[in-house]
Design brief:
Structural class: alpha+beta
Number of strands: 8
CATH class: Alpha Beta
Largest sheet: 4 strands, antiparallel
CATH topology: Alpha-Beta Plaits
Strand order of the largest sheet: 6-7-3-8
Number of domains: 1
CATH superfamily: Transposase IS200-like
CATH architecture: 2-Layer Sandwich
């Protein structure tokens, strides 16, 4: 572990050679804190969403409304995590409004924060809106996400197809899943 200001910190798992603000396709997994089952249950190889799971699914599908340069691929809500594919600009060109919004950012903010088009901003925004709304509607549950998320850069059609199939069939293999906690 590296030290930052004399404190230990977890080093990034991100590829240093990859621009996470540029074009790319990503397979993303986000877990609930302590892998608690907030999103529903998987029975008979099918996912039955809870109210919270339905909220999470709804917010996921709204991502392109807030980030017009994003196209969503396969997606699934599981009892304690989600899997999804996010495409940043490889399937379509960014809309003019998105380009103009990025240009309006000041140089200061550009230098200290991720670009508005980057995967970290999309995931942070998604997790934030879910947490806010879930905790407003269900305050006693103490909903929270795991601090980090996992992403895999999808390189190639074969990889895209395998990942899409994995996401689609995830409920069928739930009891063998590494995120399964009875």
């Amino acid at each position: 572990m590296a030290l930052f200001k004399n404190k230990y910190r977890i080093e990034s798992t991100r590829l240093t050679s990859w621009d996470y603000n540029g074009e790319g396709m990503y397979f993303v997994t986000i877990c609930t804190k302590n892998r608690e089952h907030f999103f529903g249950e998987c029975k008979d190889k099918k996912m039955k969403l809870s109210s919270i799971g339905a909220l999470v699914q709804g917010f996921w599908y709204q991502i392109p409304k807030h980030f017009p340069h994003i196209t969503l691929g396969e997606f699934i809500v599981m009892p304690n995590h989600i899997h999804g594919i996010i495409d940043i600009g490889t399937l379509r060109e960014p809309k003019e409004t998105a380009v103009n919004n990025v240009k309006k950012q000041t140089k200061y903010y550009q230098s200290i924060s991720p670009k508005a088009s980057g995967i970290p901003v999309v995931i942070r925004s998604f997790k934030s809106v879910c947490t806010k709304h879930i905790n407003e509607v269900f305050p006693s549950l103490g909903f929270a996400w795991q601090e980090r998320y996992w992403e895999h850069i999808i390189k190639g059609t074969d990889s895209f197809q395998k990942i899409s199939n994995y996401i689609y069939s995830n409920p069928e293999s739930w009891e063998d899943d590494k995120f399964f906690l009875p």
